[in-house]
Amino acid sequence: MNKVLKRYIIPIVSIIVMVALDQWTKLLTLKYVEGTDGFYIIDKILRIYFVKNEGMAWGMLQNKQIIFIIITPIVIAFLMMIYYRLPFEKKFILARICVLLLTGGAIGNLIDRIFRGQLFHGYVVDMIYVEIIDFPVFNIADSFITVGFAMMIFSIFFVYKEKDFDLLFGKKKAVEEKKEEAANEEENETA
Hints:
About 65% of the residues lie in helices and about 10% in strands. With about 190 residues, it is an alpha+beta fold. The protein has two domains: about 1-160, no CATH class; about 160-190.
């Protein structure tokens, strides 16, 4: 049961919770903020208001929703492949969290692109504006993607070594070394 919990239940529930949180905040924005000037959470610093984003981050690639609708499922499939190729060890928890954050954010924005507006001409609901630094308006899914990507970059440079990436991409030597390490640990436990 522990193996099923780690491999399937935790990642699925995590993604469902992220997508639900993202969609809930978007529904609240559409219900209470759309058509208004929004409101401040912190005066002159953090503001909530509705923006219809028909592109990607910072409004790039406006009105190219078909590209996102086609590419996003491919990216999600690739992320899931990475998730299940990673060894299920404590060392790779950070990598797993990165993949789950990226996947949850991608699914949240994909749902918007498909179901909001017209087919292939949808939009993503953005609502969070950090006014003090004039940062582009974003949403919860964007936050998951940004945090996941930042954690991934950090872990690439400071946590994982080249042999860890060899494991991910199936290089024979790394896989054999990993099996040898596991066998040695098993011998030490029985001794």
